[in-house]
Amino acid sequence: MDETLFSQLKEALSDALQNTWTTGVPPVGTGETPMLSYSVDGEGVFTLTWSYRNCGDYNQDGIVDIKDITPLAVHFGEFIDPDSGLWEHPVCEVIDGNADGAITILDITPLAANFFV
Predict the structure, then answer these.
(1) What is the pLDDT of residues 4-55, one digit of tens each?
(2) In angstroms, rounded to a whole number, what is the distance separating the alpha carbons of residues 51 and 33?
């Protein structure tokens, strides 16, 4: 195929896709995908939405690494109020890696188990 024509076709395809599609990448690895839903608007646009929890990613930057120790240290010793069922601080729900209702040394295990996920 003529190189100029091939280049024009690639550019036209790229333009067409950029103008009609919005895509994202679903989560990969050992994290959880607890909720997946879709919707179709009046113009036929299909949207796929998911929530994602990467256990051990306590600072929510998308990777479990040494920086995730900081939120654990900041909220160390916080727990769910047994009377209200609420955390002392909302971010603690993310930091409670072992889901026992308290931010303790036990929450380091999920961080270590998922390191670099």
Answers:
(1) 888 888 887 777 666 554 545 555 555 555 567 788 888 888 887 766 678 8
(2) 6
Task: Indicate the burial class of 42 (C-beta count within 10 angstroms; 0-12, 13-18, 19 or more).
Answer: exposed
pTM for the predicted model, two decimal places:
0.57
Which are the contacts of 24, defined by CB distance < 8 A and separation ≥ 6?
Answer: none
- Which residue bears the tokens 């961080």? 111
d(CA 95, CA 71): 7
Strands (E), 15-112: 32-40, 46-53
Helix ranges (DSSP H) in 1-117:
3-20, 69-74, 92-95, 108-113
3-36 per-residue burial string, b: 16 or more CB within 10 A, e: under 16: eeeeeeeeeeeeeeeeeeeeeeeebeeebeeeee
